[in-house]
Design a protein that fits this description.
mainly alpha, 0% strand, globular
Length: 204
Amino acid sequence: MRPADHGGRERYLDAALSVLVNRGVPGLTVRGVAEAAGASTLSVYARFGGRAGLLDALYERTFDSLRELLEGLPPSSDDGVGDLLHLALEYRRFARESPTRYALMFERPVPGFDPDPALRSAVLRTTFSLFIARVQRVCPRGADARSTAYQLWTTMHGLVGSELMLASRRPLADWFIPPTDEANEEMYRQGVSAMMAGLGLRNR
């Protein structure tokens, strides 16, 4: 998706991603990224035009990471439902690995930053086409795989988003499930499986 890099652009994006993961949104300044890259602020401006350009490039990089994850999940020959559930579980793992990265992708954690609409369309289309293809394998005949995939993704996103939100706060003793990774994963698995069944997704 990104053009070939001949001048160290990836170095700055690696630095920006490191800043985001380790220092959070407040660290995502031109100066902060330049320091993490061992470079000058002028060099960041020269490559990205400023903070907005840097954030757009970082936004694209985060979706590239998700796309690469999905591409690395080879489908089996006969268990499309199992493959789709595995993908959903890996999606949860991706979100839990770095909530700040996930927030940059799907929320608006950086005040004033709204990715370029053309860029948003491109990364969403490229990344989620892989997800839609998995849904297509098990979708009922005549059903719209794109709409079905969207409904399943909103379930995945809602479950993992709630989990991340609760994990950022003090645990509640009387919540629906114990505050453990095992309990959260099982709740997520049950929720995704129930939605898949409700959408009529099954092996053909």
